[in-house]
Write a sequence for this structure.
C-alpha cells in the first residue's frame, strides 16, 4: 500500500528527473497540487530522509508525504498525476444528443418563435435545461445570436475591391490617399433629466427620453498614411456641401501631391458639378467602393469611434454645442492619431466571400 512506504523507501533521482521535478515545483501554470507533490518528492530524495521530517518542513501531514513518496517510487513522474475517476454515468445517450442538435439546426419552435431557447429545447426534448446549455456550448451552437451580412450586387465588385485595397497596401508615390465620407443626421439630443454619475457598484445612468434640437452632417477625410482627420460640420449633405468639403481638402493638401480619394456611391459624390470640378483638377483621382461595401472605407471606423466616445452618450442643448464637441474631439484625436492598419488582401477578402456564398447555397435558397 502507498501508506506503507516510510523513510525506508529511499528515492534516488536521475538528473533529468530532478530537473523535471524542479521545473514542476517552480511552475506557476501547473495546478498547485501537482507542484506541491513535486516539492514533496524533491524533499524526500536521498537515503535516510524521514517522512516525518519532510512533513514538518513543508507543513503537511505525514500520511500525505508517505502517499506521494510511495506513488513516485512505484510510478515515477506519472504517479504524481491524479488517477482517472469513474464519475456518474451519462444520462443522455447519443441518439438523444443527435435529436437535440438536429432540432436546433433544422426546426423552429411550434409557438411561432424565430429561434430556440434552452428552456424551449429542454421542454421539447425532455433533457434538463442545464444539460441542453452544456451540449449547445460543446457544439458551439448559439440560436439566440444572429450575424448580419450583405453581399454587394455591384457588377464591378472585384475591380473596385482590388483598386481600393491596392491603395491601402501599396499607396502610390507623391500622392496622398484619403478616405472621405459624411456622417449624416448627427442629432443634438438633450436628455430631459440630469445624468447620474458612475459610482462603485453601478454604471452611469441616463434617461431614455430626450429633446431634439436639430441635426448636423459631419464630413470627414481620413489620411491613410498617419490617421489624421480633416473634418467639417455642415447643415446638410447635398452635392453643394460635398463640393465645399472637397475645396477644403484641396487647400489643405500640398499642391505637389496627387489626391487619391476613396468614397462611396452616394449620389452627391457623382453629381455633374462635382465631376466638372474634378475634371479641372487632374491631380484628383476618385476611387469608388463597391455598392453595399462601406466597410472598405476606413473613415467609417473613425465614425464609429467618434459616435461611441463623443456623440451617443452626450447631452447637447443646441446644434452649435454638438458641433463644438465634435470639433474639440477631432482636434484632440489628431494630437495622438494613429493609422488604421489594413492587412487583408483582395484575394483573402474574395476567399471569405466565397465561403459565405457556399454557406448561402447550402441553405437551399
Amino acid at each position: 500500500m502507498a501508506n506503507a512506504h516510510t523513510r525506508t523507501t529511499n528515492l534516488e533521482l536521475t538528473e533529468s528527473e530532478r530537473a523535471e521535478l524542479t521545473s514542476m515545483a517552480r511552475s506557476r501554470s501547473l495546478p498547485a497540487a501537482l507542484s506541491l507533490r513535486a516539492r514533496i518528492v524533491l524533499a524526500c530524495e536521498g537515503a535516510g530522509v524521514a517522512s516525518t521530517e519532510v512533513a514538518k518542513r513543508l507543513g503537511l501531514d505525514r500520511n500525505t508525504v508517505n502517499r506521494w513518496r510511495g506513488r513516485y517510487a512505484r510510478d515515477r513522474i506519472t504517479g504524481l498525476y491524479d488517477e482517472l475517476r469513474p464519475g456518474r454515468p451519462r444520462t443522455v445517450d447519443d441518439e438523444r444528443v443527435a435529436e437535440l442538435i438536429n432540432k436546433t439546426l433544422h426546426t423552429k419552435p411550434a409557438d411561432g418563435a424565430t429561434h430556440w431557447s434552452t428552456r424551449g429545447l429542454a421542454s421539447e426534448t425532455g433533457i434538463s435545461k442545464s444539460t441542453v446549455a452544456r451540449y449547445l456550448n460543446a457544439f458551439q451552437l448559439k440560436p439566440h445570436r444572429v450575424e448580419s451580412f450583405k453581399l454587394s450586387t455591384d457588377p464591378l465588385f472585384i475591380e473596385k475591391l482590388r483598386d481600393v485595397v491596392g491603395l491601402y497596401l501599396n499607396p502610390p508615390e507623391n500622392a496622398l490617399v484619403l478616405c472621405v465620407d459624411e456622417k449624416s443626421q448627427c442629432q443634438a439630443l438633450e436628455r430631459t433629466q440630469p445624468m447620474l454619475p458612475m459610482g462603485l457598484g453601478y454604471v452611469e445612468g441616463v434617461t431614455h427620453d430626450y429633446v431634439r434640437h436639430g441635426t448636423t452632417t459631419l464630413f470627414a477625410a481620413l489620411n491613410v498614411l498617419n490617421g489624421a482627420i480633416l473634418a467639417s460640420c455642415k447643415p446638410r449633405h447635398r452635392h453643394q456641401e460635398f463640393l465645399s468639403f472637397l475645396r477644403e481638402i484641396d487647400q489643405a493638401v500640398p499642391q505637389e501631391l496627387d489626391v487619391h480619394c476613396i468614397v462611396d456611391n452616394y449620389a452627391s459624390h457623382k453629381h455633374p458639378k462635382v465631376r466638372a470640378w474634378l475634371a479641372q483638377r487632374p491631380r484628383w483621382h476618385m476611387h469608388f467602393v463597391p455598392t453595399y461595401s462601406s466597410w472598405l472605407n476606413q473613415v467609417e471606423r473613425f465614425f464609429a469611434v467618434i459616435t461611441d466616445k463623443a456623440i451617443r452618450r452626450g447631452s447637447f442643448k443646441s446644434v452649435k454645442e454638438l458641433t463644438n464637441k465634435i470639433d474639440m474631439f477631432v482636434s484632440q484625436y489628431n494630437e495622438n492619431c494613429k493609422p488604421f492598419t489594413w492587412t487583408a488582401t483582395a484575394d483573402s477578402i474574395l476567399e471569405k466571400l466565397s465561403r459565405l456564398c457556399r454557406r448561402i447555397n447550402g441553405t437551399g435558397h
In short: DSSP finds 13 helices and five strands in the chain.
